[in-house]
Amino acid sequence: MQWTRQPIVRLTVAIMAVSSWSVSASAQEKSRAIDSDGTINVPAFRLPASPYLSDAARASLPRTASDPSAMLDRLVQSGAVPKVRASMRKAAAGKVDALRRQYGVSVEEAQLGGVHGYWVRPIARSRGGVRKLLINLPGGGFLVGDAASTGLIESIPLAGLGGFDIVTIDYRQAPEATFPAASEDVASVYRELLKTYKPRDIGIFGCSAGGLLTAQALAWFQKEGLPTPAAAGIFCASADARWAGDSWYWQRAMHGLTSAPSLDERFYYGDHDLDDPLMSPIRSDAVLKRFPPTLIITASRAGEMSAAINTHRLLVRNGVQASLHVWDGLDHAFYTQTDLPESREAFDVMVRFFQSIFSQKGR
Description:
- This protein has 363 residues and is of the alpha/beta class.
- It has one domain (68-358): Rossmann fold (3-Layer(aba) Sandwich), CATH 3.40.50.1820.
- 45% of the residues lie in helices and 13% in strands.
- The chain has helices spanning 2-33, 55-60, 68-78, 81-103, 147-162, 181-193, 209-224, 246-254, 266-269, 285-288, 305-317, 341-358; strands at residues 105-112, 115-122, 133-137, 165-169, 202-207, 231-235, 294-299, 322-327.
- An eight-stranded mixed beta sheet has the order 1-2-4-3-5-6-7-8, with helices on both faces.
- Helix 4 runs parallel beside helix 5, helix 5 (147-162) crosses helix 12 (341-358) and helix 6 (181-193) crosses helix 7.
- The chain is globular.
- The termini are far apart.
């Protein structure tokens, strides 16, 4: 066996030498890469568009860096938030009207429990059976959420595709109000709807701040002794008001920004403890155990992705029927770009989820 041993010995010595050189040459670099507390100092790198994107989604990717958080700061400091909401309604009117025609729905202004909103109803109603209802909580950082714009853009495709009645509402936000004003408003609407609908026929969903508010509202319902609705959709968000985890930090780099992330919702949070389960339901297993079947939607370039994944993990750990869908290479609230193929996929996922829950025996 001597004839085989020598080459092996020489190879082993060579590998050890190369390894020793590599360790020596990169020791200084490695010492800078990871701090003693485990913090990683990430070097600059190029991030190409995901090969899994549709051509339309690839074309829609931003070509210049922009910072929505900085913009919201300026709006709050200048006192322009209410004016921006009004301008959003005007700017979205054309798109809302086109969606209304495309998906065959009617839109009607509403007041429920003292809260303003809009009913979205399919024009071609199916015969028989109890109408199923979804409550939509529009996104907007608890600052610029608006039922007439973001709310209708989120609600119209889902109502038309799924055959659901949807009510999208204007809950109170900053700077006029702080936590728990929005949760109180959702509870007021829910109480009013319970006069004519059974809990098993009601679902609740929202995107971004509306997704977080969905989780907060479910915790608030428990506090108020209200029955649990049939299903929930936490989209572009999580059940964690901290928006924490790996993706919370890498999201800025993915948008060509170098500053640290900040919570857009901080103006609504005020000085409230973010560990309060009414603010961050993820902080209480007892609260999470009482969640209804929940659908979570996020994307790999969205800051909420880590928190969304963790919310799904904890719901499953607590015995809740939960489903997680992640789209690669897309950004926060991607499905509100309703002309993307991936957006239609997301709405189809929502439809199948809510229809499957509503059709379960005993509901």
